[in-house]
Amino acid sequence: MIASDSDDLYGALDELFTRLMSAGDSESIDALIELDLSFSQVRVLFVLAQRDAAIPINEVADELRLSVAATGRNIDQLVNMGLVDRREDERDRRVKRVSLSEAGRKVTTNHIECKRGQLREFASRVPEPERIRLFEALKPILAGDYLRALNLDAPIQ
């Protein structure tokens, strides 16, 4: 099968990623379900997991496209669960900065590592000739700017 256009490539990538990620979804999501987290709370955790430093609550709200009030309520619950740390900004006490606590980092890291385990398992099952071809095809794509940050507000072309 040869991808003649971007729709063909999209279809193949969609099937690949859907099959890869759904293979262990129940395993990787079980820990989040056990914590009885809402979808918005999970989203807050993963926004914070992508940051190296504490950020203002309004930045979390902007990224999630939620109101500051709704984001604040989610963060309050996560703070009470011990998954998020909240502290006053050193320069402006009106601003509250949030970051993952050690427990929150563990939850997000475990989820991501489960997904990485799925990828490792897949890579180990691909026969060597296909593995080499896939690796060689990915090298220039990863070296290029094809994977630049997605602008979710931009129209799909």
Q: How does this model look, in words?
A:
This protein has helices at residues 6-22, 25-34, 39-49, 57-64, 68-80, 102-125, 128-143; strands spanning 55-56, 84-88, 96-100. The radius of gyration is 19 Å and the shape is elongated. α2 packs antiparallel against α6 (102-125) and α4 packs across α5 (68-80). The protein has 157 residues and is mainly α. The two termini are 24 Å apart.
User: What is the number of strand segments?
Assistant: 3
Radius of gyration: 19 Å
Question: Largest sheet at a glance?
Answer: 3 strands, antiparallel
Task: Estimate the helix proportion, in percent.
Answer: 55-70%
Q: Tell me the overall shape.
A: elongated
**Which stretches are poorly predicted, pLDDT < 50 over at least 5 residues?**
150-157
N-C termini distance: 24 Å
Count of DSSP H/I helices: 7
Structural class call reads mainly alpha
Q: Can you give the mean pLDDT?
A: 87
Q: Into which percentage range does the β-strand content fall? A: 5-15%
Biggest sheet, spatial arrangement of strands: 1-3-2
